[in-house]
Specification:
single chain, about 230 residues, alpha/beta, 7 strands, elongated
Length: about 230
């Protein structure tokens, strides 16, 4: 065991030194970029121009195509050469009309954002009891309760890497235990009841069910009601 630990340590040291030497030629370039970004607000204003003008730019959307044309013309004005477009095939996902209503104990509309790549609900939507869980382990233990229900993942904010798993993997894992839809607590700290969307990734071994994000405040409210 001791020899293995020493060999591993040496391997890590070698990798670290190798990576350091590979990066060395780029350090002056990086420092130049950092210094320039701190000297002016040009990059910030350029970013504001594209986001304010074209808004969200999903793959295959008209907004993205317009933003690409803007980028080409702008780069040419900036003096870049050989600026051109190339045809590519990209997946296209279109956000439709979205709504979420709490039915009982009182009817109330709630903020909601569908997760990127989510399938839609059947015509007329879905109505079902909500089962609130805080982890995949809890969901597995309560699998018998979940069939035909909507699962809400109310995983508390730890960090993006940890908490993000409920958004990316949650819908397919919920579908495996019989859920008809999945809601996820928005990934991030609480703030002004804002839903935070992002993409979900469906697996081939589970049905595709509708998936959406709700604000952390509403997720906690569902938890208390449950």
């Amino acid at each position: 065991m001791r020899r293995l630990l020493i060999i591993t340590a040496l391997a890590l040291t070698t990798t670290s030194l190798s990576a350091q030497s590979w990066l060395d030629p780029y350090k002056p370039i990086a420092q130049k970029l950092i210094a320039e970004s701190q000297r002016t607000d040009f990059a910030w204003r350029r970013l504001a121009e594209v986001t304010d003008t074209y808004g969200p730019r999903l793959s295959g959307s008209d907004n993205l195509e317009l933003a690409i044309d803007w980028a080409l013309e702008t780069m040419k004005k900036d003096g870049f050469v050989n600026v051109h477009k190339e045809p590519v095939m990209v997946p296209k996902w279109v956000r439709g009309d979205e709504s979420l209503d709490l039915v009982e104990p009182v009817r109330q509309k709630l903020p909601l954002l569908g997760l990127g790549n989510s399938v839609g609900t059947p015509y007329g939507g879905l109505t079902s009891e909500v089962i609130v869980v805080k982890s995949f382990e809890e969901m597995e233990k309560r699998a018998a309760e979940i069939k035909g229900k909507i699962v809400l993942f109310n995983g508390e904010w730890v960090n993006y890497g940890v908490t993000n798993q409920f958004r990316t993997a949650g819908p397919s894992r919920a579908a495996k235990v019989g859920a008809i839809a999945a809601l996820v607590r928005s990934v991030g700290p609480m703030g002004l009841r804002t839903p935070h969307t992002g993409s979900t990734v469906y697996t081939d071994d589970a049905p595709k069910i509708p998936a959406a994000a709700i604000p952390a405040e509403d997720a906690n409210r569902f938890q208390r009601l449950a």
